[in-house]
Amino acid sequence: MPSNETQKFDSLVLGGGIAGLAAALDLADAGYQVAVLERDATIGGQMIRLSKVFPTLDCASCITTPKMAAAAHHPNITLFTMCRLEGAQRVDGKLEARVTQLPRYVDPDKCIGCRQCEYECPVMVDDHEQGGFTARKAIYIPFSNAIPQLALIDREHCMMCGKCSSVCPTGAVDQLQQEQEFVIQAETMVLSTGFELMTDFPQRAYGAPGLGDNVISSLQMERLLAPHGPYMRVLRPGDGKEPESIAFVQCAGSRDLQLGKPYCSRVCCMYAIKQAMLLSGALPLADLTIYYMDIRAFGKNYEQFFQNAKAMGVEFVKAKPVIAGNNPDGSVVLRYEDQEGGTGAVSREHDLVVMSLAMLPAFSPEEIVPVSAADDGFVMVPQPKLAPTLTEAAGIFTCGVAAGPKDIVDSIAEAGAAALGAAKYMAAKRGGQAAA
Amino acid sequence: MSKLNSGQEAPKIGVYVCHCGGNISDHVEIDKVVEQAGGLANVAVARENSFMCSDPGQEMIIEDIEAGKVNRIVVASCAPALHEATFRGAITRAGMNPYLYEHANIREQVSWVHHGPGATDKAAALVAAAVGKAGELEPLEPIRVEAEAHATVIGGGVAGMSAARDLAAQGLNVALVEKSPFLGGQVSQLDKTFPSGEAAGELLSALAAQVLHDDRITVYTCSELAEYSGYVGSFKLKLQRTPPSGQDQERLSRIGDASPGQFLPFVGVWADQPPEASEEVELTSGAVVLATGFEHYTPPQGEYGYGDLAEVITLPELIQIMAGETGGGEQLVVNGKTVNSLALIHCVGSRQIPGIHQPAPGGTLNEHCSRVCCTASLQAACELREKFPETSVFELYRDIRTYGRGQEDYYLNAGRAGVVFARFAPEAPPRIEAGGEDSALTVTVPDQLLAGEELALGVDLVVLAVGMEPRDNQGLVDKMKLPVGADRFLLEVHPKLRPVELPAAGIYLAGTCQAPMDTSEVANAAGAAAAKAGAILSAGQVELDPFVAQIDQAKCVGSGACVEACLSDGAIEMIDTPDGKRAQVNPALCMGCGVCVAVCEQDAIELNGWTLGQYEAMVDAIVAQTAGQGAKA
Ligand SMILES: Cc1cc2nc3c(=O)[nH]c(=O)nc-3n(C[C@H](O)[C@H](O)[C@H](O)COP(=O)(O)OP(=O)(O)OC[C@H]3O[C@@H](n4cnc5c(N)ncnc54)[C@H](O)[C@@H]3O)c2cc1C
Ligand code: SF4
Ligand code: SF4
Ligand code: SF4
Prior knowledge:
- The complex is a heterodimer of chains A (about 425) and B (about 625).
- Helix content of chain A is about 20%, strand content about 25%.
- Chain A has about 425 residues and is α/β, with parallel strands linked by helices.
- Chain A has three domains: about 1-100 and about 180-195 and about 360-435, FAD/NAD(P)-binding domain (3-Layer(bba) Sandwich), CATH 3.50.50.60; about 105-175, 2-Layer Sandwich (Alpha-Beta Plaits); about 200-360, FAD/NAD(P)-binding domain, CATH 3.50.50.
- The relative contact order of chain B is 0.11.
- At the A-B interface, strand 5, helix 2, helix 8 and helix 9 of A face helix 3, helix 4, helix 8, helix 12 and helix 14 of B.
- The structure holds flavin-adenine dinucleotide and iron/sulfur cluster (SF4) (3 copies).
């Protein structure tokens, strides 16, 4: 628990997604003391929010939760959730990180995660953990396998009715909690802050306020497909219709010079194929179409995965469509240039359209950590060949999507390399000795 | 030892059934399984959770143990390969012996393969079997073996050199074993590396310098693994060093008076004097990192005219030609012939589709994408346009896969530099013919970007972007019993959970022996492998599972049948005792296969954790359950 005193560690890992957890576990296994600093109320990052993961199609929870639990229980790892890094600098050879603990309005030492408060709270709020398709309460535990299992209050929506305080068996609710500042000192740092999707894509691309009716983001589709998702089956959010035709629009925001994002987001081809495969299981009669620029199935067994999807009847159309509007029945009209058929601009309707949105960095290091972002916004790595995880600052490493878009397999491999980089740095400082 | 550890107390079994968020509960009626389990003999509690592996799930087990409600645990969930370790860890945290645990797989063995009421029945039967066995479990202690602070890396390319450097940096001694007289592997065959454009020679020289100047690293060139035995912490390796012959000798003759560490373009980094006579080197190593790399696909004669037409070459050949070219002319000149125009063809020997592509003589197809050839050919295209502005360049591709950081720039720049792209379908690949109006060759291809319109391109050179193939490692694979995937690359345990490990403890994968990767990705993979090996070896001791054979010396009559049957050399041997010859197990070498148990006529051998009594209990439980007699005895 944060106190005003300086807390000392060997390594500070910023971001508790799969990359950060993998790096933290490698360092901790090698005997180093690690702090994982997460801004969210739970560790696990984007991966814990996914349905099943390519190319093996194992369920994301089954792979992520044990890593989360392993980190939470590791004697050499301390987790700090709901923390904001204000700045980090080297002082006398050590990195000093100034951190603000944001209030949960629930005392973490008292809360036992019983959810009584949640049942009692009268306020219903869109649950962003379920794509906004269902509701949660104003006091809530993010989801059933979140770590830590601690309630927090969403003060924007809380009415201060006091119902939660009155039912809490341990008196954990504390509406007076304040932000608290503390310092973490460490020798090395790993930046594993991951990504966000380009949610303002419609604004940037066509000046529209939102995605529009029956057009959803790829992360929302992950929730629809999750076994413990919002409806427990795949329905069109607008009207609850079971969609008969679903389209994926690839490179939505990526590889787009006009939007200033010339890079490839690297995972969306594969997750669209994965989602199409999962949909063909959930909705065997639905037509599935993927509109793409190039299919980038480059990883181990990925091309085989792509060819399987083709053989299963998923339709692949080379085109970059625009959303032309909705029909009265709610279906979405896509317009695109028919390159393969040569019939010029054509329109097609789909019940539901999924946008494979660009990945953007979740964190900009500038002015917080002494490293810079490259032109693409992700953390700069000056020696991509010899030291692919080393940033411009000695002792500060990066991995996962923080260092550019990549999938889980590549994020974990890079996390291993970042952990090794940090361990080597510390061993060298200690005269060639590994961790105590 | 606490009471719980002793296993003396009467069994109080806790059964925990997982929904796996729907993966299991969609097909198995969990409440029925829980109810039936609750009625079995010795079962103290039976519970369910949507994710047993999650923290709340694990907490449930820990609370029951700490409250003294249970002293044996059964979890029914996914395959033990995924989470057996997770649950044993939770039990350890609760202060109980982790081997008082039994796992029932009701996902891979039930819900993923059976639907309908039969699924629930089978799940209940598997749980009953696990409960039956749990009642017979005894506490066990892991086997601890000393770990040698030494690792051996096989392969001296970028992966091997990076791994060696990263292992040494963790304080380990390292043997780097390379077959050829040179370090550097396939990167030696490059001129520039993408996306940074760094010269391959500089990259290799820098890396080789780190390796050659590190006192902890010993480089063995001209060496191959001849013998292999032992186990994690203590592998016994014999290397065979052979004086170079054939192509290697020819390459050596090109070094002149090079000094160690010097890079020779398209040859490699010269490490040391090759051996003059054959010699053997014996090593004891705690871990082995495999970094044996890849091979370029060699097109069979006639594929895209290769071997028939002199003007058809591969991309590595083009790279070598271009490295010798300083530019200056307006056009590229190859073999004395001016190249006005050339076509690069992608995916040669990659992304092959059964039924469309011709298998190799061994019946194999390369169904994988080679990951680097798109960027490599675009890099070549950009360089060509820059150095030889009058040579036109066509890229004939299926998909452009410039996925990595900085790679898309090559695609954009190629377009800006006037490279012309045409996209072909795998069913209708480009056709190459000799002769043309003003050209050496004519390439015809239906272009999908133009609604399938057939293009006829007059070109003077065709360059095949050949893919990466797994190296023929059969010797090593057989000796070390390495798992190989359907794609013929070496196969990791799990791409996300244990991406650089092999099933045999202490053996790790680094680089393109596992799958195609570019140099940065190889460096990452090598670092990840070095981190894993370093973590186990720097502790000085390795823990192994105790599921090994155990001899009851009182029953053993020394027939030696077990020694003959044993599949693992040295795992069981005869020793002299006052009573005569008796069998003895080397726990570190025993694989726990149980062959010896089957052949011993005296029933003198048991497999810890899998005893005959435990098997009987499982069979009895299944019979009772399937006969509908699972109620409390
Ligand atoms: C729709 C979709 C489907 C996908 N499907 C697959 C798939 O099937 N298979 C696959 O391999 N990959 C898939 N991916 C990719 C996968 O999500 C990423 O590879 C993976 O999540 C990367 O992990 P990470 O740890 O780098 O980043 P993240 O998961 O983004 O984790 C970063 C963590 O850092 C925290 N953080 C950010 N900034 C700060 C800060 N300033 N201070 C503290 N903490 C901070 C975040 O809250 C988060 O917890 C998919 C991606 C999407 C969008
Ligand atoms: S705040 Fe109180 S009521 Fe809410 S989950 Fe925590 S302990 Fe339970
Ligand atoms: S991975 Fe595919 S969809 Fe995503 S940006 Fe790259 S090419 Fe586009
Ligand atoms: S990287 Fe490009 S050229 Fe190479 S196999 Fe993959 S798609 Fe084909």
